[in-house]
Amino acid sequence: MPQMGESIAEGTLSRWLKKAGDEVKRDEPIFEISTDKVDAEIPSPVAGVLTEILVKEGETVAVQTVVARIETEKGAAKPVAAVQSEKAGAATAAAVASPTQADLPRTAGPAPAAITAQPAQPVQPVQRAEAGGSSGGNGSSFEDRVQTRSSPLVRKIAAEHGVDLAALRGRGSGIAGRVTKKDILGFIESGPPAGAAAAPSMHAPGVAVSHGPAASPWPGDVVEPMSKMRALISDHMGVSRRTSAHVTSFMEIDLTRISRIRAKKKAEFHAATGQNLTYLPFIIASTIDGLKKFPVMNSSVSGNSIIYRKQYNIAIAVALDWGLIVPVIKHADNLSLAGLTRALNDLAARARAKRLSPDEVQDGTFTITNPGVFGSLMGTPIINQPQVAILGVGAIEKRPKVMAGPEGEDVLAIRTCAYFSLSFDHRIIDGAVADQFLAHVKSSLENFSDAGL
Fold first, then answer.
1. Structural fold of domain 246-446
2. How far apart are CA 402 and CA 399, in angstroms?
3. pLDDT score at 3
């Protein structure tokens, strides 16, 4: 299992693209994985024959776990039947390959000699550790040990919800007791145990979340388990709704000027860049201008503090056939319209081809989603945590508008317009500030200068 990013501790092997006995070429996709950041196809590091599959589809294992073996000397490859017979008789799978075998991608550094898969145990809420408790015999504090048994993502979720990871001491379902994302989300969902004092936090849920009556299938219904990505989206959306005080404002924005600029520069732009000039780069540029004027829109909440981000990393929601992913344009304020267009097209194409790395879907500071491409007029998007706002772009279409004529009279005109929605976290963003930000984006787009385009 490859290391797909610094904060990734485990991955789910969602689908094998090859079966035992198949020949594989170097860099040919061999299996797909799902992590809490991204879905990706993993290429073979060598050419040879896939002799053993050690991890089944749907299993979640720690990084560096050997998931399969490839025989690199074609003539020495064992028959599949013999391999399966040996595998059935083995108590556990050895994690050290022979010199003629190549493991699938792994991180640099020493790998454990062997890893035995352990079934995940359900996490039950436990009381928080008493202050001043024993730190163990290794001389380090329990906090230090917790840091080594949870990923940065888990620690971030715990900090956002005011959860002391000591509350899950010894209860992690991951390898060596590691606290996984599923563990921390399950703990947050269940709320504090009866009689336990909850940690003071503006994020901590006061009561257990009610999910309503459980649905059961009826005769003729089709029941399918959620995909890894679908389950993660479900978790993230639920957490966001419970974390942020969501409020949504709407404004209609006249994009006629942008439409005319596009018509005028489209051919020239394509000849110079090889890219089609769409509306979205203009929207991103105007949004960045608004974020600079209203810094709280480009911030995050940490306990009772506000972190004002100095980077402008714009996340763009991309709809996939199997779910939703949100790649990030890093340092978007340093890019021209041409640069934004290239970055958008590149990220979207690689997202659909499952070629994104986890780093490319992390560290966004503000998100833009564009449901208008499917004809939606407006919506109330859910904030992408730990951000504090998200901009929704509705369908861009021509509409009749009443405007002022040259002598102040009312005239009816055909204008290209769209409804923009801004969902924001009312814990730290007042409605007036959110509306001023949206009004600034509106003014920037309606008076966009094409100088230098």
1. Chloramphenicol Acetyltransferase (3.30.559)
2. 10
3. 73
